[in-house]
Please model this.
Amino acid sequence: MLSQNTHIQALLGLVPKLTEDCIHPEYWSAALCRQVISLQGDIPLRDSRPINPQIAGTAKSGRTEKTREFSVSRADAGYLGRFHAQKYAALPDVDLVCVVDSDPDRAAAMGAELGVPHTTSLDDLPGRVDLASVATPTVTHHAVTLPLLAAGIHVLVEKPITSTETEARELLQAAEKAGVLLQVGHLERFNPAVQTLREEVRRPLFVEAHRLSRFSGRATDVDIVRDLMIHDLDILLSLVKAPLVEIRATGVPVVTPNVDLANARLSFADGCTANLTASRLSFKDMRRFRVIHTRGYVVADCASRQNQIFRKPAGAQDLALPQEVEHGPADNLLAEIRSFVRAIRQQQPAAVSGLDGLNALQLALKINQTIAEEMEKHAQAKG
Model:
């Protein structure tokens, strides 16, 4: 881990070519930034490991280096990667110094937008990298993140952590071996409505979640369970600590080869039941999470950042009048990135650990397996 005295610089954006077999190089781009001011002064970096020269070049011996954050995203799907770069650039203690994109026009456009130099390759960039944000398509998370962790780089990887459980476990093992932080971008954990819900709920009895969105054409490389429902699975698992005992799930592909709409009913050993629905084919957006628990009833509207809280007074038979909580504007991504940097500086656990990401992925994959079995059963019945 980096000490509090250590500089943290950043490298944000998309990588042109991390490994020979990672993905076609034309799909990648990157942005660099430097100098997140240290907590206690301008101290030369002493314990940072150089990144693979194929990515950023080899630092010159004896040169005073500052750390760099590194954000990764695919150029033709750089929706999230661009936002990551903007958030890092907005931090008062971050100096964005360069953007890289394998497409010259996109590199120029991003550089102009952020007011920084641009290039199309990372091969000749000297220096060291200490932090990375990975916002590539899910199928590339493992291939992009693993070499970063192996190089001693702290990584914030977008959700889901990877496509498969095996890949996720390899990332956890790599992070532990290198002694670096692996945080997973389950963004709703930083939504003030969800934070209020988690503070209010003690032992959930029944959970209902709806996560519906209009079809955007993005993130169709994965099914709806790993794309959207996984947000609610992560929230659910942060509330319910009992073992899962039963899964009932259905889903259908409609406009993509993957499941576009899904419903899952989950039963836990402590008696809690959860009913979750996710769709990318809705006519309106909805991100709502409801919990009946031993002390009352809490609703979190993740889109409007509002809560409704019904409490049951001690000895009463009825719920008290609802408390309406409006949190106002909030920047969940900025809060997530700040938590990532703070965890590294203070040598604290990640707000959403690699293990949290693995647990959410495992449950998502079990739901997908149940859906696949149901679809096969119906196909056989029709045949």
Residues 354-382 form the longest helix (29 residues).
